[in-house]
Each structure stands twice: as C-alpha cells, then as structure tokens.
Specification:
This protein is 13% helix and 35% strand. The protein has a five-stranded mixed β-sheet. A four-stranded antiparallel β-sheet has the order 1-2-3-4, with no helix packed on it. The chain is built from three helices and nine strands, in the order ββαβββαββββα. β8 and β9 (127-132) form a beta hairpin. The chain is mainly beta. It starts with 5 loop residues before the first strand and ends with a helix.
Length: 141
C-alpha cells in the first residue's frame, strides 16, 4: 500500500475510507461517529461462513503500488473501455499478468479506468470489462 491511514464506518456494511493523518486525528477526537470521511475505497462484507471480505472500488487502486496484474490500453481502446466495452488484444499497449485473472486497467497517462478479467486464449475479448469509471453515468435511474 502507498497509504497508511484507513478508517472504517460501521453501518449495514463496513465502508472503508482512506484519510490523511490530519483528518485521522480530527476523527479520533469526535464525540459522534461520522457517516463518511476521506476517499471511499471499498466495503467489507461478511459472507454466510462469517468470513470478512474486502470489496475494493476503483479508487482503492490509487492507494496501491501496482506492479503486476495491470493492462495499459491504447487511446481508442481506453475510451471504448469506459463505455463498457471489452478489450481486444490489439488494443492493449502493455500488460503484466501473474496469478489472478483480475487486472487493473489504465490509460497511457496512468489514469485508472477500471477492472477487467484477462482471457489469454482470446484475441477478440482479451480483457472482459468488470467495471469502469463510466459505469456511474450509464446507470439507469
């Protein structure tokens, strides 16, 4: 991790936030519990076996030093990815893949575009779009 201070807000789920040291000190001195603070980075949920699992959102990966399991997309492919499209192999500029099939997807400027699943045997749907930064805009009301 490239970040040291994370806080949890208890509710229906346990929401995780990244905060800086100054904000963390202020939160510790509050008499009431905050509803939210800092940058929301994911949720901790308990499964039916009572095992806690962390479900990160896209913002979480800005706080992680990504050295493997990433793909950098060419400009046109990067745009199409943010519209929910899957990625053909010829749209990938560079990638690193070890172990997990989940990849962090970035553009050439290093902006995190979303998450994908690699399918190394396919040239057409080389990376399946799991979630992307354009998803919020596409949601139905």
């Amino acid at each position: 991790l490239k970040h040291e201070f994370f806080g949890i807000v208890e509710g229906k789920f346990r929401d995780v936030y990244a905060v800086n040291e100054e904000v963390w000190r202020e939160i510790e001195n509050l008499k009431i519990k905050p509803y939210a603070f800092g940058t929301f980075v994911g949720t901790i949920k308990v499964d039916r076996n009572l095992v806690e699992k962390f479900y990160p959102n896209i913002e979480f990966f800005y706080f992680v030093d990504i050295k493997k399991n990433f793909a950098i997309l060419k400009p046109k492919t990067a745009f199409l990815f943010t519209t929910g499209k899957d990625v053909p192999k010829n749209g990938v500029k560079e990638y690193s893949w070890q172990g997990s099939k989940k990849l962090v997807i970035l553009n050439e400027e290093g902006v995190i575009l979303g998450l994908g699943l690699i399918n190394p045997k396919s040239n057409g749907k080389f990376i399946k779009n799991i979630t992307d930064i354009g998803e919020f805009i596409r949601r139905h009301k």
